[in-house]
């Protein structure tokens, strides 16, 4: 399948000497939701800014729907909508004017019906004549999404779209994003909320120190790198793990009240049966047990720590 | 050419003027008209005619030129600086718009505002002092060239400025003195010989002189030289704008 965004050996070094991106290569598939995760300063915003034309690359190439972002910038940019991280809107304009301006800027003819559809979709229709400085923070963020959608893009970049918005609005935005994906829009989002990526994304990319260290299907990523942990709550606390159980690589927790056992769900054997047998032999009884699967957050933290 | 984008930028800028009529139109018209009242009506009647033109009428072209320089520069500089300041510049940079189209939108709007203001002030001046326009075509040509050239200068200033203070430096500390010392209120032939020569290094002299010639046929320097100097200034500004967009100076990093 032809990627809708293709980033090849992209590097960016700012005038200050700071290297924000280092030989980044990445393909985004049409119609997917791709979540780009990374700690602060990892290069997420720089990568988006280069693709959208806001920052000049130092080297490398990027194409959007087959169009080079520099040689054929008009065709490339006309396909892209961008919602930046910061709320940046002209405070004295009305919602309608600012959205209409965005559409005009992309060279599209007036289409009040489309703008109305976008504003209704984002619950902004009754605010269309309001000045932007009279809106709440959540509404301003929705206006920025409306601006990005005004020219009917096929690729939408959402840079931290739900940063600082309340839970209810965040869920509303997720619905909007899902609706856009269902309508065929490819979505690339950066987020600090791992829950957001876990809930929304089809594929996950992890960037740190300007390098993409992993790109994987979300389910595959959790399957491959995810681990399960068995917690055994003991009837009597232990001071130390008995020598007969050392082979199981256990951890003591809760001041000796619990034993933790990590295992790979994909492995041929989990080792649970042997562990329970050895525990019985050692005379260690437990009053409860539970298992927990590692979340995307655990995987992400682990990946970034190791890189 | 993305004409819709040019129109969108132009319309946005003109709408900003419409929202701020008192500041954008009434303020410059009133402040310039005060010169006509003071120098044309009150003091002007006690000053002898200059080459057969009353003092009040003599200063009209210079005052219009002073207003054009200031308004073109400040309007265009604010027009591009404000999106930089509030962050909405991202939208211009990520749209399928060429740099030339961005310049045409912003500079076109700033120049249009200045020309409209110039015509309003001309009409206002005619209420206070007798005015004649001997070369209307040249008058319009100077009006347009000067508005465009100084709107380009303002655009450069808006890109360069890192704060509101820098935005004010050029209009207040450079343009205003140049305009006051550029023959707005006097003919340079009234200066001692040394200062007549020195003042020829002031580019505003050529604008005021050429513009005044279009009104009364009076000029300190040849009208062809005035037009040439204005055209050279325009080309220099265009060259700098082209360089800014080619390198992304203070825009893309």
From TrEMBL, chain A:
> Which Pfam families would you find in this protein's record?
ABC_tran
What are the residue boundaries of the ABC transporter domain, all occurrences included?
Answer: 5-234
InterPro entries assigned? AAA+_ATPase (IPR003593), ABC_transporter-like_ATP-bd (IPR003439), ABC_transporter-like_CS (IPR017871), ABC_transporter_ATP-binding (IPR050763), P-loop_NTPase (IPR027417)
The alphabetized UniProt keywords are: ATP-binding, Nucleotide-binding, Transport
Does the keyword field hold Membrane? no
Q: Which GO MF terms are attached to this record?
A: ATP binding; ATP hydrolysis activity
Q: Which family is it part of? A: Belongs to the ABC transporter superfamily.
Identification of the protein by name: ABC-2 type transport system ATP-binding protein
What species is this protein from? Bauldia litoralis
What lineage, starting at the top, does this entry show?
Bacteria, Pseudomonadati, Pseudomonadota, Alphaproteobacteria, Hyphomicrobiales
Automatic annotation (TrEMBL), chain B:
Q: Which InterPro entries would you find in this protein's record?
A: ABC-2_transport_permease, ABC2_TM, ABC2_TM_bact-type, ABC_2_transport
**Major location (coarse):** membrane
- Keywords (A to Z) from UniProt: Cell membrane, Membrane, Transmembrane, Transmembrane helix, Transport
Pfam families on file: ABC2_membrane
Residues in ABC transmembrane type-2 domain copies: 19-248
Classify the protein's membrane topology as the record does.
Multi-pass membrane protein
Where does the record place it?
A: Cell inner membrane; Membrane
What terms describe the molecular function in GO for this protein?
ABC-type transporter activity
**Entry superkingdom:** Bacteria
- Identify the GO cellular component terms for this protein: ATP-binding cassette (ABC) transporter complex
Which spans are transmembrane here?
Answer: 21-43, 55-82, 140-161, 167-188, 200-218, 224-245
The record's annotation in PANTHER family points to: INNER MEMBRANE TRANSPORT PERMEASE YADH-RELATED (PTHR43332), TRANSPORT PERMEASE PROTEIN (PTHR43332:SF1)
Which family is annotated?
Belongs to the ABC-2 integral membrane protein family.
Name of the protein described by the UniProt record:
Transport permease protein
What species was this sequence derived from? Answer: Bauldia litoralis
